[in-house]
Each structure stands twice: as structure tokens, then as C-alpha cells.
Amino acid sequence: MTGNEALKAALIAYSEEYFSQYDIPADEKPHRFSLAYRIRKISVKRLSMKIERAARVSSPGKSAAVKRYIPLKKLAVIMTVMFSAVFLTAATGAVYFGARGFLFDVHDTYSDVSVDFSMYDIKDTIEEVYRLPEGSGYELVNETADDEIVNSKYKCGDKTITLSQYAKTFALNLMTNTENSEVYEVEVNGEVGFVLTHRSNNFDNLIAITWIHNGYVFEIAGAVVDKEELLRLAELVEIK
Amino acid sequence: MFYLLAVDTPEDQAFVAELYSDYEQMMFKIAFKILKDAYDSEDSVHEAFLNIIRKDGLDNVKKLRPSEIKGYLIITVKNAALKLYYSRKGHSGENIEDLRFLQGGVSAESKLLDEYESEKVMTALKKLSEKDYELLYQSAVMDYSISDIAERLSIAENAVRQRFFRARQRLKKILIEEELVNDRQ
Q1: What is the ipTM of this complex?
Q2: What is residue B53's DSSP assignment?
Q3: What residue of B is the nearest CA neighbor of A56?
Q4: Which of A38, A119, A217, A238 is the most buried (most CB within 10 A)?
Q5: Which domains does chain B have, with CATH numbers?
Q6: E-assigned strand segments in A110-177
Q7: Residue B66: closest CA among chain A residues belongs to which residue?
Q8: pLDDT over 90 (residue B118)
């Protein structure tokens, strides 16, 4: 046996005893991991769910491997305001994130948000188009649509809002600007969703509500419209 | 290559979930001992898991025995925590001293232990510091090269080579002392 082999054998023979020094006593109170950590943990455990998406959006020079994660301290600041007390009360470990319908994969200036497909089925194509009703006070001024997305623009005086209806492809990755943003949970007609408020020094704050309804993901957004107004409009959305 | 593709089967997901379940508390505690900060320690645990997927590969980790997995995770999270610690402190790892003795890397020092049996080496290992033992473990058991270790700690290769040399020297010194004691008895 050479010196290296003897060393390796000795290191292995002693390893169990050596590493046992790191065992945690049974009566020691476990650390309660932060919400931000738990989100990342979910993202690691559910990476396979993203494979299809990653393959779909893959392009030279855009590798997930080079995405830089923000430090938890920064993320925690975002996450502190991310969820309402009700949301936290409803939380049961890391699982509730899936149960609440959306998964956040937070990066420096944006987040990949995807629907939790273990909880919700999203339709492959748009089968029926949803719009704001005439009595909403907002007038449809523009609409573009294909099989997977419908984008509508509405106006009410100087207020403009957009309504987007997404099928599965877009539900896989709702690229969301979460820099200088607050996110918290909301319900739209009892359906799961979240409100994102993006604060800007140069422009009006942007507020967006994203929710799941009847097999689609909807997003309603406006820059000079407050959250209550957007929520009222979101609850009015119906099949045209 | 997407690192995401590394976790591509339900078995892989279950394996990762099991690693979290069994070891994340221990990994956090290890990182916290180094960093003294809960958020930084959580960052290190997360970084360790990403390293497992991106650098080492789940297939390789799966091949390890349970006792080896534990050691591997301890080393991995320690490296992640030390890397963060060094980056915060602006620390390069170690002062570079006279490198004349250090040229040739691991192989040059391997002869130091040629004359000893593994039982005697094991006895001597128990007297080594944590730092020395874990460095030797990474090299001899985990097959990390000096550049691997340097990258994982984000320090200069020369600093790792220097540490490695010293660890071997200290082990040799312990073995010689043990031998002298035995001779006297």
C-alpha cells in the first residue's frame, strides 16, 4: 500500500467518527428557515419542471447556469413584504407555495414566475377570450390575440390598463420585474393570485395583479390605477 | 448546458428532497458556525446544493455510501460558507510563503507517508485539526484537485497547495512523534 492509499484508507476509516461531531443533538431546536430560502429550496427540488421550459427558451448565450442569484439578505427584504399575514398563517412549510399556485424563482432584477402545475391545469391554447364587460367603465381600444395569448388595452379617461390572458406556454414563465417591487397574495373572486407593485423613480409605479381562472393565467396591469381599482376590474373579467 | 437538466427524473427530485430533509439543518449549523449570520448561512446551504447539481452531479453523489454522503455535504457546505466568509473579509486564504517547497503539488508530498500503515495514519489523523483533516479528505477521498478546491473556496491555488503541504507535514510530524513514543515504551 502506498502512502496515498494508506492515507485514503485511514481518512475513510476515521470519517464516520470524525463527521459525527457535526450531528445535531435530538433535543436541539431546529432552525426555522426563512421564506426566501424555502422558495429557493422549492426551485431546486422542482428544477425538472422547468426543463421543458428551459429547452423551449434556450438560446446561445442565455444559459440558466449563468443566472446570478441575489443574496438572501436582499431577497428577504423583498420577501418581507411579499406575503400578507393571511398568507403566512396559511403557510405549512414550503409546501404552501405550491398550494398557492405560483412558484417564484427570483433573480437580480426579475423573477421567473410559473404556475404550480401540480395544483393547476392551464389550457394549451386559448379556447375562449375573456374581456372586461361594458359596464366596467373602461373601453377596449386595442386587442391582439393568437392561440396562446390575448393582450387587450383599455382606457378610461387618462387611465390605461392592459389585460393579458395566457395559455400554458406563457404560464410556464411569467417573466416579472421584481426589482424594487413588493409582491403579496390576493384573491380574485376566490381564485389564487398575487399583486405586484413595482416602484420606479422615473415613472409611475406599476401595479399588476396576476391570477388563475378557469384554466388560464390572467394579468391586469396599470400605472396610474390603484390596487383596489385593478382588483375590482379583475373580478369583472368574463368571457366575451 | 443547463444545470437544470441535471435534475431530470422523479428519482433525482426525490433524492434531492431526501438530502434536504436529512442534512439541511446540519448544513445550516455548520455554515452558521463560520459565518455567524442566519441569512448568509442559508445562502451557503443553497449554494452547496447548487454546487452538488452543477459541479458534482447527482449521479456521482448517488454512488456514495450514506456515510460518504454526509461527509461530502459537510465539506461542500463548509467550502461554500468559507468562500462567502473570505469574500466578505477580502481574504485571499493565506499568505503566500516560500513556494520552493510546494512545487509539484500533491504527488511531491505523497512519499512522506509511504512507510506508514493506514492504522497508524488513522491514529495520527485524530490529532489533526479540522482544517487539515478536511483538506486531506477532499484530496484523497473526494478526488478534488488543488484547482478544484481553490475554485470552491475562491482562493489562490498556491494558497491551497501551501495548506495541503502543511497539513501533510503536520501529519508526518504526528506520525514521527507517535513512533518515538512507541520506541521509548
Answers
A1: 0.81
A2: I
A3: B2
A4: A217
A5: 1-117 (no CATH), 127-185 (1.10.10.10)
A6: 111-115, 130-131, 139-145, 149-156, 159-166, 174-176
A7: A16
A8: no
